[in-house]
UniProtKB/TrEMBL annotation:
GO terms for molecular function: metal ion binding; taurine dioxygenase activity. One of its GO terms (biological process) is sulfur compound metabolic process. It is an enzyme of class 1 (oxidoreductase). It comes from Rhizobium gallicum bv. gallicum R602sp. SUPFAM superfamilies: Clavaminate synthase-like. GO terms for cellular component: cytoplasm. This is Taurine catabolism dioxygenase TauD/TfdA-like protein. Keywords: Dioxygenase, Iron, Metal-binding, Oxidoreductase. Belongs to the TfdA dioxygenase family.
């Protein structure tokens, strides 16, 4: 008898997301998980509409996709009171302090924790409470970004590596455990070097790897001005076409699951007088090659 699963996927009009249909978070088996994983690897981003699961169900489901990664913000304001695996993203204030991480500011395009030696493979984000408008999340394919490069740009980055400083975050704040550097040249700071074009550890496909910001990034071995110009062109190419992005307009209970190795995402700002609460789990990845 053939092993069958009721799980299927419906691709959105965009090249980077599909809706998972037929998955029951309270009753699934290994075949169902294998199907979800297959679609996740195929599309880069998958969505579960109105799943309405519990924190424990999110943790249990996430565990099938790798070891948990503790996001830096979970060690600060984003920790969950009972599930250490969950990052709480919230703009709600409690006793004068944030009750979660990231608040309501606009998030620019990025891959998650690109400044790690082993950036996470996947993230699973669940909507607990959403504002009436704003706070949408955008996704794009970095496979697509690489595959649509001009011959000139592709030749310019062939075999190149990119350095990311890991001392300051995108808001200019010192990262946890870091001290202000003495040198003004960020290339002399603590950081990590990754390939500018990474090969996905499971699919074998190549993806452009730009991290999370052009500032504090340097293409190793290039004069700084040439590196900055080339990085700017690569960012403009990767993020310049709105038609390439999938837009998730959140509803309570929605779950987005993305492959951090081949996608980038960003979030819109929203009215700070409204509430946005999300619960996120993160799974471990390999060092980019």
């Amino acid at each position: 008898m053939l092993n069958r699963t009721k799980v299927s996927a419906v691709q959105n009009s965009n090249n980077v997301c599909a809706d998972i249909v037929g998955f029951d978070f309270s009753n699934y088996d290994d075949k169902d998980i294998a199907a979800v994983r297959s679609y996740w690897l195929q599309y880069g981003v998958v969505r579960f509409r109105a799943a309405h699961i519990t924190d424990q169900q999110q943790v249990d489901f996430s565990r099938h996709f790798g070891e948990f990664v503790i996001h830096p913000k979970q060690l600060q304001e984003g920790g969950h009171p009972t599930h250490r695996e969950i990052l709480v993203i919230s703009n709600v204030m409690k006793d004068g302090k944030p009750s979660g991480a990231l608040g309501n500011s606009e998030a620019t395009w990025h891959t998650d924790t690109w400044f790690y030696e082993r950036p996470p493979a996947g993230a699973i984000l669940r909507a607990i409470e959403v504002p009436p408008s704003g706070g949408d999340t955008y996704f794009l394919s970095t496979y697509r970004a690489y595959e649509t490069l001009s011959d000139e740009l592709r030749k310019a980055i062939d075999g190149r590596q990119i350095f990311f400083q890991n001392v300051y975050d995108k808001t200019g704040k010192l990262r946890l455990g870091k001290s202000a550097p003495k040198s003004r040249d960020f290339r002399e700071w603590s950081g990590i070097v990754h390939p500018l074009v990474r090969t996905h550890g499971e699919t074998g496909r190549k993806a452009l790897y730009l991290g999370g910001t052009s500032e504090g990034s340097w293409i190793v071995g290039m004069p700084l001005d040439e590196s900055s110009d080339l990085i700017t062109k690569l960012w403009e190419h990767a993020t310049g076409s709105a038609a390439e992005a999938f837009i998730q307009k959140w509803e309570v209970g929605d779950i987005m699951m993305w492959d951090n190795r081949c996608t980038m995402h960003r979030r819109d700002s929203f009215d700070p007088n409204t509430i946005r609460i999300m619960h996120r789990t993160t799974t471990a990845g390999e060092r980019p090659i």
